[in-house]
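Quick one, C-alpha coordinates below:
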Protein backbone atom coordinates (compact mmCIF):
# COMPACT_ATOMS: atom_id res chain seq x y z
CA UNK A 1 0.00 0.00 0.00
CA UNK A 2 1.60 3.27 -1.13
CA UNK A 3 2.40 6.00 1.37
CA UNK A 4 -0.18 8.70 0.77
CA UNK A 5 2.06 11.53 1.96
CA UNK A 6 5.07 12.48 4.07
CA UNK A 7 3.10 12.10 7.29
CA UNK A 8 2.11 8.55 6.45
CA UNK A 9 5.79 7.81 5.79
CA UNK A 10 6.79 9.35 9.15
CA UNK A 11 4.22 7.17 10.96
CA UNK A 12 5.71 4.08 9.31
CA UNK A 13 9.24 5.11 10.30
CA UNK A 14 8.04 5.66 13.87
CA UNK A 15 6.40 2.22 14.11
CA UNK A 16 9.50 0.57 12.66
CA UNK A 17 11.72 2.24 15.30
CA UNK A 18 13.54 4.09 12.50
CA UNK A 19 12.71 7.60 13.72
CA UNK A 20 14.08 9.71 16.56
CA UNK A 21 12.00 12.68 17.70
CA UNK A 22 14.21 15.50 18.98
CA UNK A 23 12.40 17.70 21.49
CA UNK A 24 15.42 19.74 22.60
CA UNK A 25 15.66 23.17 20.98
CA UNK A 26 17.90 22.97 17.90
CA UNK A 27 19.00 25.84 15.67
CA UNK A 28 18.52 25.44 11.88
CA UNK A 29 21.76 27.39 11.56
CA UNK A 30 24.43 24.61 11.56
CA UNK A 31 23.13 22.66 14.59
CA UNK A 32 20.55 20.55 12.72
CA UNK A 33 23.10 19.76 10.05
CA UNK A 34 25.70 18.77 12.65
CA UNK A 35 23.24 16.35 14.26
CA UNK A 36 22.26 14.91 10.88
CA UNK A 37 25.94 14.51 9.96
CA UNK A 38 26.58 12.57 13.14
CA UNK A 39 23.48 10.43 12.60
CA UNK A 40 24.38 9.58 9.00
CA UNK A 41 27.81 8.37 10.10
CA UNK A 42 26.70 6.56 13.25
CA UNK A 43 26.21 2.82 13.88
CA UNK A 44 28.56 0.58 11.99
CA UNK A 45 29.22 3.15 9.30
CA UNK A 46 28.04 3.21 5.73
CA UNK A 47 30.71 1.36 3.77
CA UNK A 48 29.22 -1.08 1.32
CA UNK A 49 29.74 -4.75 2.07
CA UNK A 50 31.04 -7.24 -0.48
CA UNK A 51 27.48 -8.29 -1.39
CA UNK A 52 26.58 -4.73 -2.35
CA UNK A 53 24.50 -4.02 0.74
CA UNK A 54 25.38 -1.41 3.31
CA UNK A 55 25.91 -1.45 7.03
CA UNK A 56 23.23 0.05 9.29
CA UNK A 57 23.17 3.83 9.43
CA UNK A 58 21.74 6.29 11.92
CA UNK A 59 18.03 7.02 12.36
CA UNK A 60 15.70 9.43 10.62
CA UNK A 61 15.38 12.67 12.60
CA UNK A 62 12.27 14.73 13.33
CA UNK A 63 13.13 18.05 14.97
CA UNK A 64 10.11 19.21 16.95
CA UNK A 65 11.56 22.30 18.68
CA UNK A 66 13.13 24.53 16.05
CA UNK A 67 14.88 27.61 17.40
CA UNK A 68 13.22 30.77 16.10
CA UNK A 69 10.31 28.91 14.48
CA UNK A 70 7.63 28.08 17.07
CA UNK A 71 5.55 25.05 16.07
CA UNK A 72 7.76 24.12 13.12
CA UNK A 73 8.95 20.56 12.50
CA UNK A 74 11.84 19.46 10.29
CA UNK A 75 12.47 15.95 8.93
CA UNK A 76 16.03 14.91 8.03
CA UNK A 77 17.92 11.71 7.13
CA UNK A 78 14.72 9.96 6.02
CA UNK A 79 16.60 7.87 3.43
CA UNK A 80 19.76 7.50 5.52
CA UNK A 81 20.06 3.70 5.68
CA UNK A 82 19.67 0.77 3.33
CA UNK A 83 16.69 -0.47 5.31
CA UNK A 84 14.88 2.86 5.07
CA UNK A 85 15.64 3.14 1.36
CA UNK A 86 13.94 -0.23 0.85
CA UNK A 87 11.08 0.82 3.12
CA UNK A 88 10.66 4.02 1.12
CA UNK A 89 10.27 2.05 -2.11
CA UNK A 90 8.29 -0.71 -0.33
CA UNK A 91 10.53 -3.58 -1.42
CA UNK A 92 12.49 -6.31 0.31
CA UNK A 93 15.40 -5.78 -2.08
CA UNK A 94 16.28 -2.91 -4.38
CA UNK A 95 16.66 -5.41 -7.20
CA UNK A 96 12.94 -6.24 -6.98
CA UNK A 97 11.90 -3.14 -8.87
CA UNK A 98 14.67 -3.28 -11.47
CA UNK A 99 12.65 -5.35 -13.93
CA UNK A 100 9.55 -3.19 -13.40
CA UNK A 101 11.56 -0.05 -14.20
CA UNK A 102 12.96 -1.78 -17.28
CA UNK A 103 9.44 -2.62 -18.47
CA UNK A 104 8.33 0.96 -17.94
CA UNK A 105 11.15 2.57 -19.92
CA UNK A 106 11.67 -0.05 -22.64
CA UNK A 107 8.88 -2.63 -22.91
CA UNK A 108 9.34 -5.73 -25.04
CA UNK A 109 6.92 -5.43 -27.93
CA UNK A 110 4.86 -8.58 -28.68
CA UNK A 111 4.95 -10.16 -32.12
CA UNK A 112 2.06 -12.64 -31.88
CA UNK A 113 -1.61 -12.02 -31.17
CA UNK A 114 -1.46 -14.25 -28.08
CA UNK A 115 1.52 -12.30 -26.74
CA UNK A 116 -0.40 -9.06 -27.31
CA UNK A 117 -3.37 -10.39 -25.36
CA UNK A 118 -1.07 -11.44 -22.52
CA UNK A 119 0.26 -7.89 -22.39
CA UNK A 120 -3.16 -6.31 -21.83
CA UNK A 121 -3.18 -6.75 -18.02
CA UNK A 122 0.34 -5.33 -17.80
CA UNK A 123 -0.60 -2.35 -19.98
CA UNK A 124 -3.70 -1.76 -17.86
CA UNK A 125 -1.52 -1.85 -14.74
CA UNK A 126 0.91 0.68 -16.21
CA UNK A 127 -2.00 2.87 -17.24
CA UNK A 128 -3.21 2.95 -13.66
CA UNK A 129 0.06 4.62 -12.58
CA UNK A 130 -0.46 7.79 -14.62
CA UNK A 131 -0.97 10.85 -12.40
CA UNK A 132 -4.44 12.23 -11.85
CA UNK A 133 -5.48 15.78 -11.09
CA UNK A 134 -7.81 16.51 -8.19
CA UNK A 135 -9.70 19.65 -7.21
CA UNK A 136 -8.07 22.32 -5.07
CA UNK A 137 -10.63 21.82 -2.29
CA UNK A 138 -9.42 18.24 -1.86
CA UNK A 139 -5.71 19.08 -1.91
CA UNK A 140 -4.01 19.23 1.52
CA UNK A 141 -1.28 21.52 0.14
CA UNK A 142 -3.96 24.19 -0.37
CA UNK A 143 -5.03 24.39 3.27
CA UNK A 144 -3.20 27.71 3.64
CA UNK A 145 -2.58 30.02 0.67
CA UNK A 146 -0.40 33.13 0.71
CA UNK A 147 0.13 35.33 -2.34
CA UNK A 148 1.94 38.50 -3.26
CA UNK A 149 2.92 40.61 -0.26
CA UNK A 150 1.98 37.79 2.11
CA UNK A 151 4.79 35.58 0.76
CA UNK A 152 7.66 35.33 3.23
CA UNK A 153 10.22 32.55 2.79
CA UNK A 154 12.02 33.63 5.96
CA UNK A 155 9.18 32.06 7.93
CA UNK A 156 10.21 28.61 6.68
CA UNK A 157 12.85 26.81 8.83
CA UNK A 158 15.35 26.68 5.96
CA UNK A 159 18.72 25.29 7.06
CA UNK A 160 22.20 26.72 6.80
CA UNK A 161 24.22 23.51 6.74
CA UNK A 162 27.91 24.51 6.64
CA UNK A 163 29.70 27.57 8.09
CA UNK A 164 30.96 28.78 4.69
CA UNK A 165 27.54 28.65 3.02
CA UNK A 166 26.31 31.90 1.50
CA UNK A 167 23.09 31.59 3.46
CA UNK A 168 20.19 29.21 4.05
CA UNK A 169 19.50 26.70 1.25
CA UNK A 170 16.42 24.64 0.44
CA UNK A 171 18.05 21.24 -0.04
CA UNK A 172 15.20 18.83 -0.80
CA UNK A 173 13.02 20.74 -3.31
CA UNK A 174 11.06 19.08 -6.10
CA UNK A 175 11.36 21.66 -8.87
CA UNK A 176 8.59 21.50 -11.50
CA UNK A 177 8.99 22.92 -15.00
CA UNK A 178 7.40 22.31 -18.38
CA UNK A 179 9.20 21.84 -21.70
CA UNK A 180 8.04 24.80 -23.80
CA UNK A 181 8.39 22.76 -26.98
CA UNK A 182 6.83 19.39 -26.10
CA UNK A 183 4.74 20.40 -23.10
CA UNK A 184 6.15 17.53 -21.05
CA UNK A 185 6.58 18.12 -17.35
CA UNK A 186 9.81 17.63 -15.46
CA UNK A 187 10.51 17.29 -11.76
CA UNK A 188 14.14 17.70 -10.70
CA UNK A 189 16.03 18.46 -7.52
CA UNK A 190 18.20 21.59 -7.50
CA UNK A 191 19.34 23.43 -4.41
CA UNK A 192 17.85 26.88 -3.81
CA UNK A 193 19.61 29.62 -1.88
CA UNK A 194 17.09 31.83 -0.08
CA UNK A 195 17.99 35.47 -0.79
CA UNK A 196 15.07 37.22 0.89
CA UNK A 197 11.36 36.90 1.60
CA UNK A 198 10.36 36.13 -2.01
CA UNK A 199 13.44 35.24 -4.09
CA UNK A 200 15.87 32.32 -4.23
CA UNK A 201 18.63 31.10 -6.46
CA UNK A 202 17.84 28.26 -8.87
CA UNK A 203 20.88 26.01 -9.22
CA UNK A 204 20.11 24.58 -12.65
CA UNK A 205 23.27 22.78 -13.73
CA UNK A 206 23.35 23.28 -17.45
CA UNK A 207 23.12 19.56 -18.33
CA UNK A 208 19.88 19.04 -16.37
CA UNK A 209 16.39 18.92 -17.86
CA UNK A 210 15.19 22.15 -16.24
CA UNK A 211 18.18 23.99 -17.73
CA UNK A 212 17.14 22.58 -21.13
CA UNK A 213 13.70 24.07 -20.58
CA UNK A 214 15.28 27.43 -19.76
CA UNK A 215 17.46 27.31 -22.87
CA UNK A 216 14.43 26.43 -24.99
CA UNK A 217 12.65 29.49 -23.59
CA UNK A 218 15.73 31.55 -24.49
CA UNK A 219 15.65 30.16 -28.03
CA UNK A 220 11.99 31.06 -28.28
CA UNK A 221 12.73 34.55 -26.99
CA UNK A 222 15.43 35.20 -29.58
CA UNK A 223 14.00 36.49 -32.84
CA UNK A 224 16.22 35.02 -35.55
CA UNK A 225 18.16 31.81 -36.09
CA UNK A 226 21.40 33.76 -35.71
CA UNK A 227 20.28 35.13 -32.37
CA UNK A 228 19.37 31.61 -31.17
CA UNK A 229 22.83 30.36 -32.13
CA UNK A 230 24.41 33.29 -30.27
CA UNK A 231 22.34 32.53 -27.17
CA UNK A 232 23.52 28.92 -27.12
CA UNK A 233 27.14 29.84 -27.83
CA UNK A 234 27.24 32.24 -24.91
CA UNK A 235 25.56 29.88 -22.47
CA UNK A 236 27.93 27.08 -23.49
CA UNK A 237 30.82 28.82 -21.80
CA UNK A 238 29.53 28.32 -18.28
CA UNK A 239 26.54 27.37 -16.22
CA UNK A 240 24.44 30.25 -17.53
CA UNK A 241 25.24 33.55 -19.31
CA UNK A 242 27.79 35.61 -17.43
CA UNK A 243 25.43 38.53 -17.04
CA UNK A 244 22.03 38.58 -18.68
CA UNK A 245 20.45 37.92 -22.05
CA UNK A 246 21.16 41.51 -23.10
CA UNK A 247 24.87 40.60 -23.38
CA UNK A 248 24.17 38.15 -26.23
CA UNK A 249 25.39 39.54 -29.57
CA UNK A 250 22.41 40.52 -31.71
CA UNK A 251 19.89 40.09 -28.89
CA UNK A 252 18.51 42.93 -26.81
CA UNK A 253 16.00 42.86 -23.99
CA UNK A 254 13.58 44.83 -26.14
CA UNK A 255 13.50 41.98 -28.65
CA UNK A 256 12.55 39.35 -26.10
CA UNK A 257 8.90 38.43 -26.43
CA UNK A 258 8.47 36.51 -23.17
CA UNK A 259 11.07 36.68 -20.43
CA UNK A 260 9.40 34.52 -17.80
CA UNK A 261 9.39 30.76 -17.33
CA UNK A 262 6.97 29.40 -14.76
CA UNK A 263 8.28 27.20 -11.95
CA UNK A 264 6.72 25.43 -8.97
CA UNK A 265 8.55 23.79 -6.06
CA UNK A 266 7.14 21.11 -3.77
CA UNK A 267 8.75 20.38 -0.40
CA UNK A 268 7.81 17.35 1.69
CA UNK A 269 6.17 14.68 -0.49
CA UNK A 270 5.76 10.93 -0.14
CA UNK A 271 9.12 9.12 -0.38
CA UNK A 272 8.59 7.64 -3.86
CA UNK A 273 7.83 11.07 -5.31
CA UNK A 274 10.87 12.59 -3.62
CA UNK A 275 13.09 9.77 -4.90
CA UNK A 276 11.66 10.08 -8.43
CA UNK A 277 12.94 13.66 -8.59
CA UNK A 278 16.57 12.44 -8.51
CA UNK A 279 16.12 9.46 -10.82
CA UNK A 280 18.08 9.96 -14.09
CA UNK A 281 15.13 8.98 -16.28
CA UNK A 282 14.94 9.83 -19.98
CA UNK A 283 13.48 13.31 -20.55
CA UNK A 284 10.43 11.85 -22.32
CA UNK A 285 9.36 9.97 -19.18
CA UNK A 286 7.68 12.16 -16.59
CA UNK A 287 8.78 11.75 -12.98
CA UNK A 288 5.12 11.58 -11.94
CA UNK A 289 4.86 8.31 -13.87
CA UNK A 290 8.11 7.03 -12.36
CA UNK A 291 6.77 7.79 -8.88
CA UNK A 292 3.42 6.15 -9.65
CA UNK A 293 5.24 3.09 -10.93
CA UNK A 294 7.45 2.90 -7.85
CA UNK A 295 4.56 3.32 -5.42
CA UNK A 296 2.15 1.28 -7.64
CA UNK A 297 -0.43 4.00 -7.23
CA UNK A 298 -0.96 7.24 -9.16
CA UNK A 299 0.36 10.53 -7.85
CA UNK A 300 -2.44 12.97 -7.13
CA UNK A 301 -1.77 16.42 -8.59
CA UNK A 302 -3.41 19.80 -8.18
CA UNK A 303 -3.22 22.96 -10.26
CA UNK A 304 -1.13 25.79 -8.84
CA UNK A 305 -2.66 29.11 -7.86
CA UNK A 306 -0.51 31.54 -9.85
CA UNK A 307 1.27 29.43 -12.49
CA UNK A 308 0.11 26.89 -15.06
CA UNK A 309 1.73 23.85 -13.48
CA UNK A 310 0.59 20.85 -11.44
CA UNK A 311 2.18 19.74 -8.17
CA UNK A 312 1.69 16.80 -5.76
CA UNK A 313 -1.51 17.55 -3.90
CA UNK A 314 -0.22 16.04 -0.65
CA UNK A 315 2.96 18.12 -0.49
CA UNK A 316 3.67 19.91 2.78
CA UNK A 317 4.78 23.13 1.06
CA UNK A 318 4.46 24.46 -2.49
CA UNK A 319 6.31 27.53 -3.79
CA UNK A 320 5.00 29.03 -7.03
CA UNK A 321 6.65 31.61 -9.22
CA UNK A 322 8.85 32.26 -12.21
CA UNK A 323 12.40 32.63 -13.44
CA UNK A 324 13.14 35.73 -15.50
CA UNK A 325 15.33 34.95 -18.51
CA UNK A 326 17.02 38.35 -18.31
CA UNK A 327 18.14 38.04 -14.69
CA UNK A 328 21.02 36.23 -13.01
CA UNK A 329 22.45 36.52 -9.51
CA UNK A 330 25.43 35.14 -7.63
CA UNK A 331 24.64 31.85 -5.89
CA UNK A 332 26.89 30.07 -3.37
CA UNK A 333 29.26 29.10 -1.87
CA UNK A 334 27.58 25.89 -0.73
CA UNK A 335 29.00 22.89 1.14
CA UNK A 336 28.28 20.12 -1.36
CA UNK A 337 28.22 16.33 -1.52
CA UNK A 338 31.77 16.29 -2.82
CA UNK A 339 32.95 17.27 0.65
CA UNK A 340 34.07 20.67 -0.66
CA UNK A 341 32.38 24.01 -1.12
CA UNK A 342 31.16 24.85 -4.60
CA UNK A 343 32.19 28.39 -5.37
CA UNK A 344 29.88 31.32 -6.26
CA UNK A 345 28.50 31.41 -9.79
CA UNK A 346 25.77 33.21 -11.68
CA UNK A 347 22.42 31.39 -11.72
CA UNK A 348 18.79 32.26 -12.49
CA UNK A 349 16.63 33.87 -9.82
CA UNK A 350 13.34 32.30 -8.73
CA UNK A 351 10.65 34.85 -7.87
CA UNK A 352 7.99 33.42 -5.56
CA UNK A 353 4.45 34.59 -6.28
CA UNK A 354 2.63 32.24 -3.90
CA UNK A 355 3.27 29.84 -1.04
CA UNK A 356 0.68 27.21 -0.20
CA UNK A 357 1.04 24.65 2.56
CA UNK A 358 -0.67 22.25 4.89
CA UNK A 359 -1.66 23.17 8.40
CA UNK A 360 1.24 22.45 10.78
CA UNK A 361 3.37 21.72 7.73
CA UNK A 362 6.50 19.58 8.11
CA UNK A 363 9.62 20.90 6.39
CA UNK A 364 11.81 18.24 4.73
CA UNK A 365 15.55 18.77 4.30
CA UNK A 366 18.70 16.83 3.61
CA UNK A 367 22.36 17.38 4.39
CA UNK A 368 25.08 16.87 1.80
CA UNK A 369 28.78 16.84 2.56
CA UNK A 370 31.74 14.53 2.97
CA UNK A 371 30.42 10.97 2.48
CA UNK A 372 28.90 8.88 3.80
CA UNK A 373 25.69 10.89 3.92
CA UNK A 374 22.00 10.28 3.31
CA UNK A 375 22.48 10.56 -0.45
CA UNK A 376 24.86 7.56 -0.30
CA UNK A 377 21.85 5.25 -0.01
CA UNK A 378 19.86 7.10 -2.63
CA UNK A 379 22.74 6.75 -5.09
CA UNK A 380 23.05 3.02 -4.31
CA UNK A 381 19.33 2.58 -4.96
CA UNK A 382 19.68 4.28 -8.35
CA UNK A 383 22.68 2.07 -9.14
CA UNK A 384 20.82 -1.16 -8.41
CA UNK A 385 17.56 -0.14 -10.06
CA UNK A 386 19.13 1.05 -13.30
CA UNK A 387 21.73 -1.71 -13.76
CA UNK A 388 19.32 -3.66 -16.03
CA UNK A 389 18.84 -0.54 -18.14
CA UNK A 390 22.58 -0.19 -18.60
CA UNK A 391 22.61 -3.83 -19.69
CA UNK A 392 20.02 -3.09 -22.37
CA UNK A 393 22.58 -0.89 -24.10
CA UNK A 394 25.70 -2.73 -22.93
CA UNK A 395 24.66 -6.37 -22.34
CA UNK A 396 28.26 -7.37 -21.57
CA UNK A 397 28.05 -5.56 -18.22
CA UNK A 398 27.86 -7.94 -15.25
CA UNK A 399 27.72 -5.49 -12.35
CA UNK A 400 28.39 -1.87 -11.46
CA UNK A 401 29.51 -0.14 -8.27
CA UNK A 402 29.51 3.61 -7.61
CA UNK A 403 31.40 3.84 -4.29
CA UNK A 404 30.14 6.36 -1.77
CA UNK A 405 33.46 8.20 -1.82
CA UNK A 406 33.01 8.79 -5.55
CA UNK A 407 29.89 10.90 -4.83
CA UNK A 408 27.96 9.43 -7.79
CA UNK A 409 29.98 10.93 -10.64
CA UNK A 410 33.69 10.65 -9.78
CA UNK A 411 34.21 6.90 -10.14
CA UNK A 412 32.34 3.90 -11.51
CA UNK A 413 33.61 0.31 -11.29
CA UNK A 414 32.26 -2.03 -13.96
CA UNK A 415 32.71 -5.77 -14.48
CA UNK A 416 32.19 -7.19 -17.98
CA UNK A 417 32.16 -10.43 -19.92
CA UNK A 418 35.11 -9.64 -22.14
CA UNK A 419 34.70 -11.03 -25.66
CA UNK A 420 37.13 -9.21 -27.94
CA UNK A 421 40.17 -6.97 -28.03
CA UNK A 422 39.41 -3.45 -26.84
CA UNK A 423 36.14 -4.53 -25.27
CA UNK A 424 36.80 -2.62 -22.02
CA UNK A 425 37.36 0.62 -23.95
CA UNK A 426 34.14 0.12 -25.87
CA UNK A 427 32.28 -0.16 -22.56
CA UNK A 428 33.92 3.01 -21.21
CA UNK A 429 32.81 5.02 -24.22
CA UNK A 430 29.33 3.47 -24.07
CA UNK A 431 28.91 4.56 -20.45
CA UNK A 432 30.11 8.09 -21.20
CA UNK A 433 27.36 8.25 -23.84
CA UNK A 434 24.59 7.33 -21.35
CA UNK A 435 22.67 10.32 -20.03
CA UNK A 436 23.94 11.50 -16.65
CA UNK A 437 26.70 8.85 -16.76
CA UNK A 438 28.52 11.28 -19.07
CA UNK A 439 29.77 13.01 -15.92
CA UNK A 440 31.70 9.96 -14.68
CA UNK A 441 35.25 11.16 -14.16
CA UNK A 442 36.88 7.74 -13.87
CA UNK A 443 35.64 4.36 -15.13
CA UNK A 444 37.42 1.21 -13.99
CA UNK A 445 36.67 -1.96 -16.00
CA UNK A 446 37.43 -5.40 -14.56
CA UNK A 447 36.70 -8.99 -15.59
CA UNK A 448 33.44 -10.73 -14.72
CA UNK A 449 35.03 -12.83 -11.95
CA UNK A 450 35.85 -9.68 -9.94
CA UNK A 451 33.29 -8.62 -7.34
CA UNK A 452 32.97 -4.89 -8.01
CA UNK A 453 31.22 -4.36 -4.66
CA UNK A 454 34.41 -5.49 -2.88
CA UNK A 455 36.60 -2.40 -3.30
CA UNK A 456 39.61 -4.19 -1.80
CA UNK A 457 39.44 -6.83 -4.53
CA UNK A 458 39.07 -4.13 -7.18
CA UNK A 459 42.15 -2.30 -5.92
CA UNK A 460 44.09 -5.58 -6.00
CA UNK A 461 43.06 -6.19 -9.61
CA UNK A 462 43.80 -2.64 -10.75
CA UNK A 463 47.18 -2.41 -9.09
CA UNK A 464 48.26 -5.78 -10.52
CA UNK A 465 46.54 -5.88 -13.91
CA UNK A 466 47.48 -2.59 -15.53
CA UNK A 467 50.45 -1.25 -17.38
CA UNK A 468 49.65 2.44 -16.81
CA UNK A 469 50.83 3.79 -20.16
CA UNK A 470 49.02 1.05 -22.08
CA UNK A 471 45.82 0.63 -20.05
CA UNK A 472 44.80 4.16 -19.09
CA UNK A 473 43.02 6.34 -21.62
CA UNK A 474 41.93 9.96 -21.40
CA UNK A 475 39.16 11.81 -23.16
CA UNK A 476 37.57 15.25 -23.03
CA UNK A 477 33.90 16.01 -22.53
CA UNK A 478 31.22 17.45 -20.24
CA UNK A 479 31.86 17.17 -16.52
CA UNK A 480 29.69 17.78 -13.49
CA UNK A 481 29.16 21.43 -12.56
CA UNK A 482 30.40 20.59 -9.05
CA UNK A 483 33.80 19.44 -10.31
CA UNK A 484 36.14 22.08 -8.94
CA UNK A 485 39.24 20.44 -10.45
CA UNK A 486 38.21 20.61 -14.12
CA UNK A 487 40.08 23.04 -16.39
CA UNK A 488 36.85 24.90 -17.19
CA UNK A 489 33.37 24.92 -15.66
CA UNK A 490 31.39 21.96 -17.03
CA UNK A 491 34.20 20.82 -19.37
CA UNK A 492 37.23 18.68 -18.63
CA UNK A 493 38.92 15.32 -18.95
CA UNK A 494 37.87 11.80 -17.96
CA UNK A 495 39.93 8.67 -17.37
CA UNK A 496 39.27 5.05 -18.21
CA UNK A 497 41.27 2.19 -16.68
CA UNK A 498 41.27 -1.20 -18.37
CA UNK A 499 42.04 -3.63 -15.54
CA UNK A 500 40.90 -6.73 -17.43
CA UNK A 501 43.20 -9.60 -18.37
CA UNK A 502 45.16 -8.71 -21.49
CA UNK A 503 44.98 -10.89 -24.58
CA UNK A 504 47.40 -11.63 -27.39
CA UNK A 505 44.88 -9.94 -29.70
CA UNK A 506 45.58 -6.77 -27.70
CA UNK A 507 49.33 -7.06 -28.25
CA UNK A 508 50.13 -8.87 -24.98
CA UNK A 509 52.67 -11.58 -25.85
CA UNK A 510 53.42 -12.85 -22.33
CA UNK A 511 51.55 -15.53 -20.35
CA UNK A 512 48.86 -14.11 -18.04
CA UNK A 513 49.08 -15.84 -14.63
CA UNK A 514 46.17 -17.40 -12.76
CA UNK A 515 44.94 -15.86 -9.51
CA UNK A 516 45.39 -17.85 -6.31
CA UNK A 517 42.34 -19.93 -5.43
CA UNK A 518 41.91 -22.89 -3.08
CA UNK A 519 40.13 -25.89 -4.68
CA UNK A 520 36.42 -26.12 -3.85
CA UNK A 521 36.73 -29.66 -2.44
CA UNK A 522 39.46 -28.55 -0.04
CA UNK A 523 37.37 -25.61 1.16
CA UNK A 524 34.42 -27.93 1.70
CA UNK A 525 36.48 -30.38 3.79
CA UNK A 526 37.94 -27.70 6.05
CA UNK A 527 34.64 -25.88 6.68
CA UNK A 528 33.81 -28.06 9.68
CA UNK A 529 37.31 -27.75 11.13
CA UNK A 530 37.23 -23.97 10.79
CA UNK A 531 33.86 -23.73 12.47
CA UNK A 532 35.20 -25.79 15.36
CA UNK A 533 38.10 -23.43 15.95
CA UNK A 534 36.05 -20.28 15.39
CA UNK A 535 37.49 -19.06 12.09
Amino acid sequence: MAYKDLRDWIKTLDKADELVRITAEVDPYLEMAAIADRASKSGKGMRMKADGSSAVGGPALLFENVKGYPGARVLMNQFGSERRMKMALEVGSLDEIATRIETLLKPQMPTRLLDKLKMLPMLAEIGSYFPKTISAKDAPCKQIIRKGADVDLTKLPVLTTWPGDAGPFITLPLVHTRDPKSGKRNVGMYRMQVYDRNTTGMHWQRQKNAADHLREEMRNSAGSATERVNVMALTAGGTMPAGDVSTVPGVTVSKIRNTRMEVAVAIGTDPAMTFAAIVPAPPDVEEFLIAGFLRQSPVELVKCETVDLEVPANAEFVLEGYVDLTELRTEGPFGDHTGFYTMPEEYPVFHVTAVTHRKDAIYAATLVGKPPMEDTHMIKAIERIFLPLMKLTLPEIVDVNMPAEGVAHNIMIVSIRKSYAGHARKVMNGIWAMGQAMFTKCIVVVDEDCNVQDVAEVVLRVSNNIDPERDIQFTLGPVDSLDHASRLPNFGSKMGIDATRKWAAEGFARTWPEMLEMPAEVKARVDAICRGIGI
